[in-house]
Amino acid sequence: MAISSDDSQHKPSELSTSSPEKLTGFEWWRRSLAYRTGLGLNEQEQKQYEHDYTAKNLPDMCKSCVEGRDWMLQYSPTVIFMMDHVRKLGGNLNVTNINCDVCDDTKGGGFHPEMGILLCSNWIRNKWQLEDILAHELVHAYDYLKFKVDLTNLKHHACTEIRASMLSGECRIFNEIKKTGLGNFGSKFQTCVRRRAVLSVQANPNCSGPEEAQRVVDTVWQSCFNDTRPFEQVYR
């Protein structure tokens, strides 16, 4: 199961050769990573992907995303720190499985335990947003390896989403001020983290709706929000 903005569940064996316009955003990404990593492929699927990939002209569309990814992997303190801790847990993330692609859904990225990390080039405005998204997905990778996250368990899902939004920097107060103004200054960080976690859990196919998502996030909030591993503390 992958962690993303829609958090849909797919199995690697469920590869499709449907045309791209018939695929959901997540399905296109999952299939793209499967082709690039060689997981579960047959000759027909490989030929189908090569045709679709050329038709979408992805190399040109994703160029700035790839450049931003490579820059972050070399220079971003947060990304380098998280990559190091993922490696220490036995993870193997690198430029071959941290991929830029075009996503149909309005999301910044996703993480799949077997296929790696997706960066949605058509929704990333600049390299600093890319840094936040990549850091977010690296927290998911760390949690998967460290805590054996099971996304069919909504508490697990809520916890990793709380931690990813908290530790990635995407909810830093400066960003929230630009979005919502100076009101409720002291609660902006927590409000952002909670909002993002609820929306993600709500999209889990095992969640009945907004009320359950809110209830699950509230249940695990205190312990997960206060867990800053592998960081010593969080700068907001």
UniProtKB/TrEMBL annotation:
User: A single GO molecular function, which one?
Assistant: peptidase activity
Q: Which domain of life is it from?
A: Eukaryota
Ranges where the record places region Disordered? 1-20
Q: Name one GO biological process term.
A: proteolysis
Q: Tell me yes or no: is RNA-binding among this UniProt entry's keywords.
A: no
- Keyword Metal-binding listed? The answer is yes
Query: What enzyme category does the UniProt record give?
Result: hydrolase
Which keywords label this protein? Hydrolase, Membrane, Metal-binding, Metalloprotease, Mitochondrion, Mitochondrion inner membrane, Protease
Which Pfam families does this one have? Peptidase_M76
Query: Where is this chain's protein located in or outside the cell?
Result: Mitochondrion inner membrane
Q: What is its main location?
A: mitochondrion
Q: What topology does the record note for this protein and the membrane?
A: Peripheral membrane protein
| EC number in record | 3.4.24.-
Q: What does this protein do?
A: Has a dual role in the assembly of mitochondrial ATPase.
Would you identify the family this protein belongs to, as annotated? Belongs to the peptidase M76 family.
Which named protein is this?
Answer: Mitochondrial inner membrane protease ATP23
